Amino acid sequence: MIEATFQLLYPDFNLDVDLRLPEKGVTALFGRSGSGKTTLLRCVAGLNRAAKGRLVVAGEIWQDEAQGIFLPTHKRPLGLVFQEASLFPHLSVRKNLEYGMKRSGNKAGEGFDASITLLGIRPLLDRAPESLSGGERQRVAIARALLTRPRLLLMDEPLAALDLKRKLEILPYLEKLREELDIPVLYVSHAPDEVARLADHLVLLENGQVVASGPLMATLARADLPPAFADDAGIVLEARVAAHETDGLTRLEFPGGHLYVSRRDKPLGSRLRCRIHASDVSLARSAHGDSSILNTLPATVQTIVATETPGHVLAQLALPDGTLLLARITERSRVALGIAPGLAVVAQVKSVALLA
Amino acid sequence: MEASSLSAIWLTLKLASLVTVLLLLVGTPIAWWLSRTSSRWKGAVGAVVALPLVLPPTVIGFYLLLFMGPHGPVGKITQALGWGVLPFSFTGLVVASVFYSLPFVVQPIQNAFEAVGERPLEVAASLRASPWDAFFSIALPLARPGFVTAAILGFAHTVGEFGVVLMIGGNIPGKTQVLSVQIYDYVEAMEYGQAHILAAGMVIFSFLVLLALYGRRAYKGWSR
C-alpha cells in the first residue's frame, strides 16, 4: 500500500489529496491540465515539498512532516520518467544507463540485459542521445530508471511529447512493462486511451482534489463522476478472443456477453482490453432484427445523469452479469423512449475500440 | 624588443592567468547562485557584479585604493595579518583585477547554467545523484561552453585593463608595470617604435581572442 497525503498551497493553486494506492500495477493519475496530477507526482518524487505531507511506500516513510521527515529525491528509491526526453546529452546511451546504476549501488548491472531487451535498446547502446528518435530516447530513459532498481516508478506523461506513430511504437513496451514489473507505477496522463490501455487503478483529479480513486474498470463505469469527465466517458472491459469467423469478424467473449470486431490477428484465447465509448452506445426498447448494428446487449438501466453537453445525458447500464456500460443519449430520446432506472433495454454498441 | 617590454608582457600574462583562475573559482558559485535563486537579493547581487561594466575604471581603482590602503578596512586587516598593504603590489593588482573582470566571467557562466535548466538536475536526483554530485557530473559539463567563453573574456579583459592598474598598481617595472601601462610610458617618452610593437601585438592578440570566441559561437551557438 502506498499512502500519500499532501497539502500544498500555491497562490493560484492548491493540492489537497489523501490517497491509498495499490502496491502492484499501474495507477493512472488522470485529469485535465492544471488538475494537479504532475504536482502530485512531483510531491511523491520529493521534487516539490508539501508543507503538510506524508508519504509511505512499501512500509518506508519517505515523508512525514509531522515528524520532520523528508527524504530528498536522491535518497528515495524511485525511478522517474519525464514527458520530454531527459537523457544527459553529454553521455552516450550506455553512460546514461550507467549513471543511475553506479549511484544506486547496482554496479554489477543486475537486470541490465533484461531491461535493454525488454525495451529493445540493445542496438542503441553506443549512440549519442541526440542521434535517437523521440521514442528511442524515451525507451532509454525508462530503462535508465529501471536500472536503479526502484521501489516505485513514476512516469509523467511519457508519451505526450511523441507523435502518434512513436506513441504506438512505445505503447507495447509499456504494456510489457506492466506485465513484468512487480513494483507499483504511477502514470500521469491526460489521454483516456493511454489510461484505458495501461492502467489497473485510476485516480481522477480536478482542481488539485481527488474526485475518484479505484480499480480502473469499476471507476470508468461510474456515472456519478463530475460532468467534466462525462464527455469523454467510456468503459473498459477485458475480453477473450473466442473465434475468428469466415466473414472477417472476430468474436470476443466477456462474462457479460460477446462482441464482434473486425478481424484481429490474435491467437484464440488471448485477452484483449476494449474500450466502449459512451457516445458509441445507443439504446432501444426491444431487440428488433431490422438494425445494421451487430453488437446488441440486453441490459438494465441503473442511473441517468446530466452531462456538460446541452441536451445530452449519460446512462449507466448493467449487463446480466453485473458488467457496467455507459451510454450517451439525448434527453429528447430519453423522454421519447421513457428510459428510466430499472427499465430493461437493449444496448446497441456501434463500435468497440480494441486497445491492444 | 626592450627588456622592459618583455617583462611587461610576462607580468601581464602572469596577472591575466592568475586572475582568470581566481575568477573561475569565485565566479562559478556566484553564477550558480544567480542562476537558481529566487531570493529578493538576486537583483542587487547581479547589479553589484555588473557594476564594472558601467563604472569608469578609475572609480573602481579609487575605492579599492581607499579600502585596501593603510587606513581602509581591508588594509587594516591585511596589516594586522602581517601582509602589509596591497596597493602598489602584484597582489593588489590581482585583487583589483578580479573585481574589475568579474562580470565578464559571471555572466557567461550564469547564462550557461540558466540554459542547462532545472530538469537535468532533477533527473540526476532521481538517479540518486546528490546535489554536489549532480553539479559536477551534469551541470558543469553541460555548461562547459559558458566556462570557455568566461575564461576567454576574463583573460582578455584583464590583459586590456589600464585605469584600474594605474590607480591601484602604479607603474613599477617588473612588479605592476603591465603591457597597457608600458605602452602609455613609451608614448609619453615618444618611443613610438617600441609602443608600436606592443600595441600592434595587442591588436593581433585581441583579434585572435575574439575570433576564437565568435568563430566558436557561430559554429556551435551561444550555449551549446
What is the averaged pLDDT score of chain A?
Answer: 91
Round the Cα radius of gyration of chain B to an integer and report it: 20 Å
The CATH topology annotation of chain B reads as MetI-like fold
CATH fold group of the largest domain in chain A: Rossmann fold
What proportion of the residues of chain B is helical, as a percent range? over 70%
Examine the secondary-structure arrangement and name the CATH architecture of the largest domain in chain A: 3-Layer(aba) Sandwich
What's the total helix number of chain A?
9
Could you tell me how far the N terminus lies from the C terminus of chain A, measured between alpha carbons in angstroms?
28 Å
Order of helices and strands of chain A: EEEHEEEEHHHEHEHEEHHEEEEEEEEHEE
User: Total number of β-strand segments of chain B?
Assistant: 0
Strand-residue fraction of chain A?
Answer: 35-45%
How many domains in all of chain A? 2
- The CATH architecture assignment of chain B turns out to be Orthogonal Bundle
Mean pLDDT of chain B: 91
Strand content of chain B: under 5%
CATH class of the largest domain in chain A: Alpha Beta
What are the key terms here?
heterodimer; A: 356 residues; alpha+beta; Rossmann fold; OB fold (Dihydrolipoamide Acetyltransferase, E2P); 2 domains; six-stranded mixed sheet; five-stranded antiparallel sheet; 37% strand; globular; B: 224 residues; mainly alpha; MetI-like fold; 11 helices
Structure commentary:
The complex is a heterodimer of chains A (356) and B (224). Chain A is of the alpha+beta class and 356 residues long. Chain A contains nine helices and 21 strands. Chain A has helices at 37-45, 93-103, 112-118, 134-146, 164-180, 192-198, 216-220, 227-230, 331-337; strands at residues 2-10, 13-21, 26-30, 52-57, 60-64, 69-70, 78-81, 152-156, 185-189, 201-206, 209-215, 234-244, 249-254, 257-262, 271-277, 281-284, 295-306, 312-318, 324-330, 344-349, 353-354. In chain A, a hairpin with a 4-residue loop joins strand 5 and strand 6 (69-70). The mean pLDDT of chain A is 91. Chain B contains eleven helices and no strands. The model of chain B has no long low-confidence stretch (mean pLDDT 91). Chain B has 224 residues and is an all-alpha fold. The interface between A and B is medium-sized, with 23 and 18 residues.
